[in-house]
């Protein structure tokens, strides 16, 4: 085991110990310990209805990420190819989307789409989209001019330059955007479900709070952490490693 | 075939040319010489339509540069390889950009062939950050040759090569040119290189630049660098450089 | 001195004007859709733009609103600065020592990134009395992973050739750090600030959940639970304005000052 | 004597309740024993603050007491904070003016939206629908679909037709009446009073055993001041209601309507309220909202003076 | 003064040198020649401690490279200017890095002076993206000279310059060297350049590289390129290159 791995695992143990200690000194309705949470998780997995709620949250997160990512890319490219739209897209649309509170969107979405998954997804996407827009825009602004000229010397086909030169130059930005959106999406989804949903993990948390059932809340948090960790470990990290490979001297 | 007439270029408020005019005929090998910063690279960019001009006209095979792009290829002064592809894939990239979708295998073969032509058969898997300066330059040359253009613009393509590799590359380029009848515009600082390769040498002066010399070289190929005619030309070119210098320093 | 591209006066000017027009058109279109949706509905269901604008003006004259706005703004700015400092330090630590790299990139980062805001709110309410400290704590906890991710990305994107150039002139790490690394990181730090600034405003509501009974998030909650749709939307828009103000006055000039390339 | 003890009090974020504590906040009710620092919190905040013991006295839903106890969180009732008013208005099932729904039975196969399906208020609605109108109100597999929707979105959802009926409370119900766009198909609170002859209690002020133990005197004083504040509001209606109305942007008449028709704020604790809570727990257990019926007795502060 | 002994370097699994040894004495002007990709740039990086070695030893003035850094300056093969500073500020950057805080005005003066020395007095305000290839290279030279190092490593510093500028730069460097007694290690592909400048020419062979030739040049300065001694050396060097080539192709 390398020193790095050793340190990493040691840290994990230390963290668990600290948690247990903290739980020891607080009542269960404030902070349950790791063991109670693990037991709760096991019970959770055995309950189909709860799994269904987990599925609902996953669906909301995934749909919103895909939707806002695709829309954000498309929107960011518009002013790149048609500079006329710059003010409209960034100064007006982007700035407004970027700052209008998520709960505001939830209200408007409820008006426009009714009370269902679509409006939850809409509200989350509205929050996520500006992040995609801002990140991709900075990517597009920082394209290597020399390479762009190289591309131009070989072809005037915009599609080809986009696919072979611009997109690869943007990959790090796209990737960072995806990672960012993934983090924000969870937070927003939970909040949206907590305050306005009738399905999903946020809704479960809401119910658990009414019952002073802190264990369930921690179990849900635990599941989210496990899920995000897996995504990080098996999806984002390998891609990151590939980007790093050709940047090294 | 290729014509600049009274071209005017302004960059950052500075006039690079006020009235630059010259022509290149079909199948000609033209060498462009001139002091550093006089606008040689700029003139190549103008001919390929990569830089808008403030005045005058540029025609390529009776088309505007914006229409004639598919007949051209560049070897830029800095290699401009993309960091996320290795040497081989960088060469393939040029073909992908120019021709769109197509057989990957045959392109890799072609790229392989050109990379061994430039002496990099053993380094095809290396990413640009692992290549030496001269190796990067040679990948860029292979990339341009791979799209088989009618006109090639080369901007100091051999500047980072050692004499022996350089000699070999010169011979290769000369052969390609003789066998295919391509038109080549070649920027170099090496007067001997120009004398060996060129049908015609165009020497630019200081900014705002204009053509100082337009030398036709009639010596038969392969040329002997020691030949009397070439020696005379060399003396003349170096002379012009020097006088140019003198002007600049007064 | 930023380089200003000389623009052909006639065409550029016209394009600018067309762009501005298109921009305003987007705003008008949004207002029109809103107006159309709200038409015929009682104002406590969905108020129209006019009613909201009116309420907004009214709010601007209210002491209590201004105090709440100030409190929220200060909290947001404080949290953003602390989170960026913390995220930057973590990213730096991860890049100085492989042992830290494991701990930070494989444990702390995914943990912070995934821990729900509501979880922080609960923990903070247990650990701290309700008040500014708790709110800032929650906001910092939420923002730090975003700063960490972004600045970490910056470290990875550093041009190694330039660093080598720096090392050829000096082995003084602080100097290389100040003159080259920091400048290369600047765009990433700025984007971290920008992103966390945006998130901070969006989650102000969640962090003010712990029961710090002031701030704009609290006002929104108040308006929401009393079904004051007009006030609710007016507060939403006031947040938009404060956000845009900070963006235009601070972030955009900073980004102009440190472009990635000229 | 040193500085006065500070008692922090968190109450439900609602303009009507601002009127209740107005006298305390504005120095009309004073004490030389304690200072009350009153803060209004939204329901989720109240829940959280109850568990983390951030306030000395906190207003909490009646339905939450058994749940808290089962998790080991001991709460003790000091007094009644909200009780159904005699006329039993403001807790009904609302539909759009032109809705085909005429009576609660028409809800069969339709959708009813509520701000919180597990809340005390909604449980009372379900009790009436089940007992009086014979509807099966089970959350899963009942006669009609029940959806949880944030309070602020309810009128909009109703207007848009994504739900057929909704439970509107407090200021929302008042605005619905004023707008003339909505009507009720059942006044469930009135129905409950008719059926069970008790006015349900929905919220109580609670504290924690260890805090009460430490300074019983101070909490006695809190109860006195609270009661005095309610009395002040009811006897100085113009002064208090106008002040609160100006701040909240509501009509001053709303407060009159609310204190008369919707809710009582007793401020003390009486036998009759204990009975009403017992009844409510019994009915909730029947509906499955509580696991089993429990008496209110153990939740009462042992020093509490229980009125007749 | 500067000594490599049995240096071994591996990059990306490939052995660049197995046993490279050579020395440079104080005040010497050494030119490093060799085929493209043979490891000239790598050897400069090794000498400055920018690249760790896998075996052997490197000593600089009896110190390890890690300690001797303050005596060295580099002109890299690619100019490595920072994009956010203009030409003048790029030169100042070198001084800031080496000396830390200090008088800004005097540094700007010094930078100004060196930029005019390399012929860029008129372009000091330009950002790297506005400079021509040769201009960038000259900014990099000025940046290295500005810190007044005892040892200068120059990696093909004049490759993008025209003959006249190149001649001028050569003279400048030669003068600086003669007046200050600096030690210079100079990589070039131009044999004539090496012959004109060097006290000693070290010619490296193909990978894994070793020293092929170690020529002392005793001709007095300023040198006449036509001199018989130099011509003999030139013939010899080109010969070695060619034979090296032949080996590589078999
Ligand atoms: N964007 C720009 N703004 C201002 N000046 C510029 C810009 N781009 C190029 N120049 C100037 O134009 C002149 C010509 O540049 P160009 O690259 O064509 O020179 P060159 O002849 O290729 O020189 P070299 O031999 O050094 O490569 C240079 O003096 C350069 O400083
Ligand atoms: N990171 C790396 N991974 C693998 N190979 C590398 C790496 N860096 C350099 N090399 C190889 O090491 C060899 C020497 O490189 P170096 O840059 O020293 O050559 P050079 O002599 O300066 O050549 P040139 O004259 O072309 O600049 C080259 O063949 C190059 O491909
Ligand atoms: Mg050039
Ligand atoms: Mg090299």
Automatic annotation (TrEMBL), chain A:
Protein's UniProt keywords contain GTP-binding: no
InterPro entries: MetI-like
Coiled-coil intervals, chain numbering: none
Pfam families per UniProt: BPD_transp_1
Topology class, membrane: Multi-pass membrane protein
Keywords: Cell membrane, Membrane, Transmembrane, Transmembrane helix, Transport
Domain ABC transmembrane type-1: 54-233
Membrane-traversing stretches: 58-82, 94-115, 121-140, 165-186, 215-236
Keyword Transmembrane helix on entry: yes
Localization of this protein: Cell membrane
PANTHER family recorded: ALIPHATIC SULFONATES TRANSPORT PERMEASE PROTEIN SSUC-RELATED (PTHR30151:SF38), ALKANE SULFONATE ABC TRANSPORTER-RELATED, MEMBRANE SUBUNIT (PTHR30151)
Family the entry assigns: Belongs to the binding-protein-dependent transport system permease family.
Stated name of the protein: ABC transporter permease
Biological source species: Candidimonas humi
TrEMBL record, chains B, E:
Coiled coil: none
Domain ABC transporter intervals: 2-231
PROSITE patterns from the UniProt entry: ABC_TRANSPORTER_1 (PS00211), ABC_TRANSPORTER_2 (PS50893)
Keyword line: ATP-binding, Cell membrane, Membrane, Nucleotide-binding, Transport
InterPro entries given in the database record: AAA+_ATPase, ABC_transporter-like_ATP-bd, ABC_transporter-like_CS, ABC_transporter_ATP-bind
GO molecular function: ATP binding
Matches recorded under Pfam families: ABC_tran
Family per record: Belongs to the ABC transporter superfamily.
Entries under PANTHER family matching the protein: ALIPHATIC SULFONATES IMPORT ATP-BINDING PROTEIN SSUB 2, TAURINE IMPORT ATP-BINDING PROTEIN-RELATED
Name the record gives this protein: ABC transporter ATP-binding protein
Taxonomic source organism: Candidimonas humi
Lineage, broadest ranks: Bacteria, Pseudomonadati, Pseudomonadota, Betaproteobacteria, Burkholderiales
From TrEMBL, chain C:
Segments passing through the bilayer: 21-45, 65-90, 111-128, 134-151, 184-205, 225-246
Membrane topology: Multi-pass membrane protein
Alphabetically ordered keywords of this record: Cell membrane, Membrane, Transmembrane, Transmembrane helix, Transport
Stored InterPro entries: MetI-like
Main subcellular location: membrane
Pfam families named in the record: BPD_transp_1
Ranges of residues in domain ABC transmembrane type-1: 65-250
Domain of life the protein comes from: Bacteria
Places the protein is found: Cell membrane
Protein family per UniProt: Belongs to the binding-protein-dependent transport system permease family.
Protein name, per record: ABC transporter permease
Organism: Candidimonas humi
């Amino acid at each position: 085991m390398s020193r790095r791995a050793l340190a990493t695992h040691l840290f994990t143990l230390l963290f668990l110990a600290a948690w247990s200690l903290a739980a020891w000194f607080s009542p269960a309705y404030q902070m349950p310990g790791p063991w109670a949470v693990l037991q709760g998780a096991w019970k959770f997995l055995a309950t189909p209805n709860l799994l269904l709620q987990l599925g609902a949250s996953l669906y909301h997160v995934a749909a919103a990420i895909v939707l806002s990512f695709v829309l954000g890319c498309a929107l960011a490219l518009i002013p790149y190819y048609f500079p006329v739209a710059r003010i409209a897209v960034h100064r007006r649309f982007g700035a407004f989307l970027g700052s209008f509170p998520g709960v505001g969107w939830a209200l408007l979405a409820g008006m426009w789409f009714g009370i269902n998954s679509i409006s939850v997804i809409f509200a989350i996407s509205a929050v996520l989209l500006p992040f995609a827009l801002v990140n991709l825009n900075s990517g597009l602004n920082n394209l290597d001019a020399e390479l762009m000229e190289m591309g131009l010397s070989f072809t005037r086909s915009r599609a080809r330059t986009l696919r072979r030169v611009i997109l690869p130059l943007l990959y790090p930005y796209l990737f960072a955007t995806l990672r960012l959106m993934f983090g924000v999406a969870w937070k927003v989804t939970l909040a949206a479900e907590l305050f306005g949903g009738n399905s999903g993990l946020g809704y479960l948390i809401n119910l658990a709070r009414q019952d002073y059932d802190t264990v369930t809340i921690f179990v849900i948090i635990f599941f989210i952490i496990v899920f995000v960790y897996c995504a990080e470990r098996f999806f984002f990290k390998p891609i990151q490693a590939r980007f790093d490979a050709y940047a090294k001297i | 075939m290729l014509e600049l007439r009274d071209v005017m270029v302004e960059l950052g408020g500075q006039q690079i040319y006020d009235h630059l005019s010259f022509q290149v005929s079909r199948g000609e090998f033209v060498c462009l010489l001139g002091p550093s910063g006089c606008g040689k690279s700029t003139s190549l960019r103008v001919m390929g339509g990569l830089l808008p001009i403030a005045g005058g006209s540029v025609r390529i095979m009776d088309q505007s540069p914006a229409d004639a792009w598919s007949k051209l290829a560049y070897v830029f002064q800095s290699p401009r390889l993309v960091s996320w592809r290795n040497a081989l894939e960088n060469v393939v990239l040029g073909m992908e950009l120019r021709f769109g979708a197509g057989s990957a295998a045959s392109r890799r073969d072609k790229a392989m062939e050109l990379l061994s032509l430039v002496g990099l058969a053993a380094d095809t898997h290396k990413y640009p950050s692992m290549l030496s300066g001269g190796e990067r330059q040679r990948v860029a040359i292979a990339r341009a040759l791979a799209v088989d253009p009618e006109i090639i613009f080369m901007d100091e393509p051999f500047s980072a090569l050692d004499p022996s590799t350089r000699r070999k590359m010169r011979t290769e380029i000369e052969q390609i040119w003789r066998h295919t009848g391509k038109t080549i515009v070649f920027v170099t600082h090496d007067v001997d290189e120009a004398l060996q390769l060129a049908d015609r040498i165009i020497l630019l002066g200081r900014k705002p630049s204009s053509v100082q010399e337009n030398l036709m070289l009639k010596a038969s190929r392969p040329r002997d660098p020691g030949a009397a005619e070439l020696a005379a030309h060399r003396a003349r070119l170096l002379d012009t450089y020097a006088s140019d210098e003198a002007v600049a320093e007064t | 001195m930023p380089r200003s591209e000389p623009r052909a006066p006639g065409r550029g000017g016209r394009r600018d004007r067309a762009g501005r027009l298109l921009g305003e058109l987007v705003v008008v279109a949004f207002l029109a859709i809103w107006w159309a949706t709200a038409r015929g509905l009682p104002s406590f269901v969905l108020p129209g733009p006019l009613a909201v604008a009116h309420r907004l003006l009214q709010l601007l004259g209210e002491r209590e609103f201004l105090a709440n706005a100030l409190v929220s703004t200060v909290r947001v700015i404080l949290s953003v600065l602390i989170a960026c400092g913390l995220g930057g330090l973590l990213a730096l630590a991860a890049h100085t020592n492989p042992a830290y790299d494991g701990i930070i990139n494989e444990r702390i980062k995914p943990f912070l990134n995934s821990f729900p805001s509501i979880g922080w709110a609960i923990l903070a309410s247990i650990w701290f009395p309700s008040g500014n400290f708790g709110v800032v704590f929650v906001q910092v906890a939420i923002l730090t992973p975003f700063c960490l991710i972004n600045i970490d990305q910056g470290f990875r994107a550093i041009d190694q050739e330039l660093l080598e150039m720096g090392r050829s002139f000096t082995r003084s790490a602080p100097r290389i750090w100040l003159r080259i690394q920091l400048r290369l990181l600047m765009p990433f730090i700025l984007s971290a600030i920008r992103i966390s600034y945006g998130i901070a405003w969006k989650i102000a509501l969640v962090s003010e959940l712990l029961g710090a009974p002031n701030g704009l998030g609290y006002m929104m909650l108040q308006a929401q639970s009393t079904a004051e749709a007009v006030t609710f939307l007016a507060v939403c828009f006031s947040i938009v304005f404060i956000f845009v103000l900070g963006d235009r006055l601070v972030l955009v000039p900073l980004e102009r000052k440190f472009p990635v390339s000229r | 004597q040193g500085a006065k003890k500070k008692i922090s009090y968190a109450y439900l974020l609602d303009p009507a309740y601002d009127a209740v504590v107005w006298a305390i906040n504005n120095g009309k009710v004073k004490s030389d024993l304690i200072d009350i620092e009153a803060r209004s919190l939204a329901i989720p905040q109240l829940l959280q603050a109850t568990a983390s013991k951030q306030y000395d006295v906190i207003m909490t839903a009646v339905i939450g007491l058994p749940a808290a106890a089962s998790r080991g969180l001991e709460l003790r009732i000091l007094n009644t904070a909200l009780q159904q008013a005699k006329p039993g208005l403001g807790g009904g099932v609302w539909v759009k003016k032109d809705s085909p729904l005429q009576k609660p039975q028409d809800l069969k196969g339709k959708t009813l939206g509520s701000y919180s399906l597990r809340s005390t208020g909604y449980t009372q609605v379900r009790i009436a629908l089940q007992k009086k109108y014979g509807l099966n109100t089970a959350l899963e597999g009942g006669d009609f679909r029940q959806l949880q929707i944030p309070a602020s979105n309810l009128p909009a959802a109703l207007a848009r037709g994504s739900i057929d009926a909704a439970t509107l409370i407090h200021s929302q119900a008042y605005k619905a009446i004023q707008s003339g766009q909505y009507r009720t198909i059942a006044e469930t609170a009135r129905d409950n009073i008719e059926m069970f002859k008790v006015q349900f209690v929905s919220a109580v002020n609670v504290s924690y055993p260890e805090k009460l133990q430490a300074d019983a005197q101070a909490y006695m004083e809190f109860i006195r001041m609270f009661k005095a504040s309610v009395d002040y509001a009811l006897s100085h209606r113009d002064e208090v209601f106008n002040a609160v109305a100006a701040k909240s942007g509501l009509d001053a008449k709303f407060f009159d309507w609310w204190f008369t028709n919707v809710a009582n704020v007793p401020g003390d604790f009486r036998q009759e309220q204990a009975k009403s809570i017992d009844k409510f727990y019994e009915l909730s257990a029947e509906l499955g909202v509580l696991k089993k019926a429990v008496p209110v007795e153990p939740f009462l502060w042992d020093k509490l003076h229980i009125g007749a």
